[in-house]
Amino acid sequence: MFNKILIANRGEIAVRIIRACKELGVRSVAVYSEADREAMHTRLADESICIGPAASKLSYLNIPAIMSAAEVTDSEAIHPGYGFLAENSEFAEIVIESGYTWIGPTPESMRTMGDKVKAKAKMETAGVPLVPGSEGAVGSVDEAKEVARSTGFPLIIKAASGGGGRGMKIVHSEPALPNAFNMCQTEAGAAFGDDTVFIEKFLEEPRHIEVQVLGDTHGNLIHLYERECSMQRNNQKILEEAPSPSLDEETRQAICAAGLAAAKAVDYVGAGTVEFLVNPDNSFYFMEMNTRIQVEHPVTEWITGVDLIEWQIRVATGEKLAFTQKQIKMKGHAIECRINAEHPFKFTPSPGTVELYHAPGGRSVRVDSALYTGYRIPPHYDSMIGKIITHARDREKCIRRMQRAIDELAIIGVTTNIELHQRLLANPGFQSGSFNIHFLERWLDQLRV
Asked: Among 48, 51, 212, 223, which residue's Cβ finds the most Cβ atoms within 10 Å?
């Protein structure tokens, strides 16, 4: 086991990793920007070191500063968390070449799955179902029109290096195709430094289901079932749950097997997530793979009893998985609500000072947050300030437990999306489990009428 791990992140995920380190008897090093000097992760870690100004590009995205912090603190390994540099294969290579252990998959796996064109080609070879579309990159409007003739409309143009809902354009007719294609190429080049795009048939009423995988360096690879992630707005998740309320057992087994096949195709090591779009008839298609820990990993931990952060660290030391696929069983149901410092329906950010913070408690309620009374939420980063996760024997009980937990949660001084969760949890459509990725946005449109 490592003696010291540097955490190249901030906020609730940094706190989560620090807690795992403490339970493993490992010393932790927090890095922070000038805006995060009083942040919770700097207080909980064994050591903390400033790596630059508030702007992410000068601090949490500043590779030389992070590597210098690792050197001066005598760290042995680096955990990237999620976001920032977590899926940057160049950073992973620098970490490894500098003699540190990278707590994550190999740079080769990250590069392959980070390029959606290469990932699709790899998935086709592995027999993982793919959305109909271009065989590879599409370089011109004329090529785009040829693809459109075979896939039909609507279609979606995607940046090969995109992610997080960025670098995508939905096109409903041929006259709109040239402008959308050129805009997507331009945006992709500006956002990701790579203007490569490809085209897929746009699925109009899908659900977003993802499969959690975990592998070690000895060739062992398992799945930990699926998560339902369809409750989202602008491709940003709001609420997640496990297992999915919409899958029958046959589809569950098939999609989990496809997730494993995708991970095996790139010799995956560590924790990763394979994402799928699922049609109303339960046919499903590969979308992408996230080569990092996910925000919503706690719901999987609840239903399987596996500590994913702990096993990320253990696998990085060369340890074998201590369980087989047959030993992984689903127990009950779990739901996660993302708590954001933003207007609950306008979604405008609300940085500021937390005048009072009271976390919910009680049986099977988990809070992952970096909040405390008096904390000043900076305006420079993502608006998510915490997660409430509940677990129960079944979905109905889990929803009621979450309603109780959300009602107990008190955050005064900044505007949050607590009311959104209260109303969503009471919505009959959500309670029935009959929803897809458009549910939340359509419901919000009705609220605004």
From this structure: 212
